[in-house]
TrEMBL record:
GO terms for cellular component: cytoplasm. NCBIfam families: hemL (TIGR00713), PRK00062.1 (NF000818). Its cofactor is pyridoxal 5'-phosphate. The keyword Oxidoreductase does not apply. Its main location: cytoplasm. The modification N6-(pyridoxal phosphate)lysine is found at residue 265. InterPro entries: 4pyrrol_synth_GluAld_NH2Trfase, Aminotrans_3, Aminotrans_3_PPA_site, PyrdxlP-dep_Trfase, PyrdxlP-dep_Trfase_major, PyrdxlP-dep_Trfase_small. This is Glutamate-1-semialdehyde 2,1-aminomutase. Homodimer. GO terms for biological process: protoporphyrinogen IX biosynthetic process. One of its GO terms (molecular function) is transaminase activity. The lineage of its organism: Bacteria, Pseudomonadati, Pseudomonadota, Betaproteobacteria, Neisseriales.
Length: 425
């Protein structure tokens, strides 16, 4: 019996579904999740000691590849000095200064331990600052699992969202409006109707939780203009895109200055660390300065800060993001070529260290379009690639991640494997 299967069976006895986060259970693709024994660079090894070229990278953090020696050393050194203090440290000031330097829109920030915490706190802050209750999100964007953000679209424009999870009272989502990504008209109509009640609009500025979907320039410009006109805050949830799509993040690519930004994944270098920050006058509303409460026993944890700080230094090496972008673009183009040769309808896209592939003729621009892709084909392709030793996200609705350890040669190997896998579909 495979050791992966053995661990999965054992895990299921004591952990719901055998996993600590749902997508890890391979529910959409079927089969046995790979239990990771260790990882290094672009690879991980599973419980059966099989090697995989990893395009998940912990869902984003592993931008330098796994277990980068300098990051590991920084964490080891920090650990020797104590694991957690519940009192401020120099490292926290240093990483805050570093992030503020890289992101001009962020004048002040708070460190937290997960992206969920970052977005939840940013929303509370936006409501506290504006004195308004309504929030706007977009269908298909994921912002963690706090109650007010676990919402699916209602039946029409200006109907409030319904909870998308059990255990979330409708009362918790009755202030959340769910709109369509890239729909400028709907956004404008909404602001016309209830703009003076909207505390904030939160979005994935490049969506990576409904596969990879880019916003139009018109859409992000409308977001900035409408929020500004109506006194609502614009929150760029860059938990996934932050430091991955570019050194100055999606907001840098868009030329947009959001009021608040959330960061996670890359910023923690693989450790539990996330950030919310933005305009100093807004951040001044946070306790102890203001009346918006937010706290955390492990916030600014010294090991997480050491990993994050070292990662931020390493990604500032000249040409880092250019190289990363070129590798992702090469992969996206290679996959599209391979599909064309195999006569399979597939489109692809990439930005920075993120890529998407869609079993449909066109690149989707909304959740509705993303969910129109051929899931049966995705499943077959996923397993064919897994057999080839290539580990893709076990879901058709997640972006893929390339690290700097994914060399040109490894990208070539991946494209060759995809050609064989597609031929077998
Ligand atoms: C991953 C993610 C989150 C949630 O972060 P966690 O650390 O998993 O809580 C929030 N927003 C976006 C855009 C994400 O990709």
């Amino acid at each position: 019996m495979s050791r992966n299967l053995e661990l999965f069976e054992r895990g299921k006895q004591v952990i719901p579904g055998g996993v600590n986060s749902p997508v890890r259970a391979f529910g959409q693709v079927g089969g046995t999740p790979r239990f990771v024994k260790r990882a290094e660079g672009a690879y991980f090894w599973d419980a059966d000691d099989k090697q995989y070229l990893d395009y998940v990278g912990s869902w984003g953090p592993a931008i330098l590849g796994h277990a980068h020696p300098e990051v590991v050393k920084a964490v080891q050194d920090a650990a020797v000095g104590g694991l957690s203090f519940g009192a401020p440290t120099e490292g926290e000031v240093e990483i805050a200064e570093e992030i503020c330097k890289l992101l001009p829109s962020v004048e002040q920030l708070r460190l937290v331990s997960s992206g969920t915490e970052a977005t939840m706190s940013a929303i509370r802050l936006a409501r506290g600052f504006t004195g308004r209750d309504l929030i706007v999100k977009f269908e298909g964007c994921y912002h963690g699992h706090s109650d007010s953000l676990l919402v699916k679209a209602g039946s029409g424009l200006l109907t409030f969202g319904n909870p998308s999870s059990g255990g979330v009272p409708a009362d918790c989502t009755k202030h959340t409006l769910v709109l369509q990504y890239n729909d400028v008209q709907q956004l404008a109509d909404t602001f016309k109707e209830v703009g003076d009640q909207i505390a904030c609009v939160i979005l994935e500025p490049i969506a990576g939780n409904m596969n990879l979907i880019k916003p139009s320039a018109e859409f992000v410009q409308a977001l900035r203009a409408l929020t500004e006109q109506h006194g609502a805050l614009l929150i760029y949830d860059e938990v996934m895109t932050g430091f991955r799509v570019a050194l100055n993040c999606a907001q840098g690519l868009h030329g947009i200055t959001p009021d608040l930004t959330t960061l996670g994944k890359v910023v923690g270098g693989g450790m539990p660390l996330a950030v919310f920050g933005g305009r100093a006058d807004i951040m001044a509303k946070i306790a102890p300065l203001g009346n918006v409460y937010q706290a955390g026993t492990l916030s600014g944890n010294p090991l997480a800060v050491a990993a994050g700080l070292t990662t931020l230094k390493l990604i500032q090496q000249p040409g880092f993001h250019d190289t990363l972008s070129a590798r992702s673009a090469k992969l996206a183009a290679g996959l599209a070529d391979a599909a064309r040769e195999a006569g399979v309808a597939m489109s692809t896209d990439s930005v920075g260290g993120m890529f998407g592939f869609y079993f449909s003729d066109t690149v989707p621009t909304s959740y509705a379009e993303a969910t129109r892709c051929d899931i049966a084909r995705f499943k077959a392709f996923f397993h064919a690639m897994l057999d080839e030793g290539i580990y893709l996200a076990p879901s058709a609705y997640e972006a893929g991640f390339v690290s700097i350890a994914h060399s040109d040669a490894l990208i070539d190997d991946t494209i060759a494997a995809a050609r064989r896998a597609l031929a077998r579909l």
